[in-house]
Predict the 3D structure of the following.
Amino acid sequence: MTLSICVAQLNYVVGDMAGNAQKIIEAAHEAHAKGVRLLLTPELATCGYAAEDLFLRPAFIDACDDALKAIVSATAGLHGLHLVVGHPTRIADDVGIGVRDRSSSVAQLHNAASVLLEGQVKATYAKRMLPNYQVFDERRYFAPGVETCVFDVATEEGDAVRVGLLICEDAWFEEPAADALRAGAEILAVINASPFHTGKGGEREATMRQRVLATGLPLVYAHLVGGQDEIVFEGRSFVLSADGSLAGRAASFEEALFDCRFTRQPFGWDIASSTDRDHSQEADLWHALVLGVRDYLGKNGFPGALLGLSGGIDSALVLAIAVDALGKDRVRTVMMPSPYTADISWLDARDMAARLSVRYDEISIAPQFEAFKASLASEFAGLPEDTTEENLQARIRGTLLMALSNKFGSIVLTTGNKSEMATGYCTLYGDMAGGFAVIKDVAKTMVFKLARWRNAHDPYGTGANPIPERIITRPPSAELRPDQKDQDSLPDYAVLDAIIELYMENDRSPAEIVARGYEEADVHKVVRLIRINEYKRRQAPVGIRVTHRSFGKDWRYPITSKYRA
C-alpha cells in the first residue's frame, strides 16, 4: 500500500489572492501528474502570512473566499488528489461569536484549512492553538477551533489511509495530535507559517519529533518560504518517520514541490524522500537576509537598491547581501566623504565596488558640511564642537541618499546593525534614513562572522571574496571626528553584544548579567542606552528579523517610562 504526499513549499504574496490561488492550482496539476494523492499547502496560503489588520476588512475575506472557490473549481478534474489549502474563514453566524465595533473586538474568523477533493470541500479544520507571542498576534484576528480533523486518502491500490490535520501551533502542544490519534489518524499532516530565526529549524524538528514519539505516527511538516516585511520563512519542510528519525527535508530558502512516498510495511511506514543538508548558522543567516531583501524589493515593486558605501564593515556587508539578492545591475553605491574620512576608506570602498561590479559614485559632503556650520555659526558661537557636528554629517548623507532615491526610484538600504540600534549609536535622519534596514537584527560580532563567511563562499555566483580584508580587520569607526573609534563610546563589541543578548533578547536583569561576570559599569551603561534610545528605534525603518527577539514586532516597550530594571 503506497501513498504519495507532496508539499507545495511556495512563496506566496500577502493580499495577492488570485496569484496565490494560481500557484496552488499549478502545483496541484504538477503533483497530480506525478501520481501524488495528497498535496499540502502552508498555513493561510490563499492570502499569505501574515495579513495583519487586512483580516479585519470584510472585502479581504471575501477575496479569500473567492480564491478558495477558484482553487476548488480548477482542481475538480484532478481525480484522486486530496488538496489541503490554508485560508481564513468566517465563523458561522449561528455560533454567536459576537460583533466588532469601535470599543470592543471579538474575533469572527478561524485560521482554517480545507480538504478539497474533485471539486468539493470534504472537510474544514480550524486551528486550535493561537500563538500570541514574539511576532504572532493571532488572537487579535482569530477564534480557536475545537474540533479534530481526520480524513481518508485513497492509496494507489485503493485502500484508505487516515490523515490527521494540524495547523502550525497545534503541533507544539500534545492535545491536538493526541486527539487526532484517538480519532484514527495514521499519519499527521501539519501545515505551517513559522518565521525564521537562528536555530528555529532545529527547534521545529525537535518539537515535531516529540509529537511523533508521543503518538507513534509519522509526520509531514509543510512550511512556507519567502520574505514578508520584517519576517522570513525558510521553507525546510520535512517528514519524520514514526520512530522520530528524519526521513526527508526540503531545501531551505527556496521554493520546492517536496515529495515523500509512504509505503506500508509489516513494521509500519517506509518513507522515501530527499534530504537537504543542515546549514551552518552563518549560511542560514546569509540566505535569510538575501531572501528578505529580494522579496521586500520584489513584492513592493522597487526597481533597485541604493546605499551609502563608507569603507566600513556594515555597509560592506549590506552591499554583498544586496548584490546576492538583486544582482549587480540593480544596486548602486555612493561614497560621501567628509573632512574626517580616511584615505583607506576611499580605497576600500572603491575596491569593493569594483569586486562586485556595481555602480559607484563619490559625492563629497565637505561643501554642505561647511555651509551648515556657517548657517549655524551665530547660534553656536562660543560652544565647542560635539556630536551635533558629527550628526550633521550623517544627516547630509541621509538627505543626499533620499534625494537619489526620490529621483530614480531605488530604495535606500540602511546599514545599521543591532548593536547600534540597541545603544542608539546611530543618527536620526542620518544613517537611519532609508527604506529597509537589512542588518537591523544582526549584532556587530555576527556582522564580522558573516563577512568572513561570505568571503569564503559564493552561494549566488556574484563574486568570490567580495569584502576587502582591511574592511574586516580595521577598527570600526563612524569617521565623524578625527581618529574616532566605536570603542571610544561603547564597550568592546564582544561584551556589548553579550549584554544586549542577555538583557534585550532573554529578559535577564542587570544583576543577573553582572553575576555572570560582566562589569557592573558596562552592564548599567548598556541597559541605560537601550532604555533611553527607544524613541530612535520607533522611527527606524523596518528590517529583517533573524533572532528570536528583534527590535520590531516582538519588542514593545514604552518610550516614556520611569521603570529601572
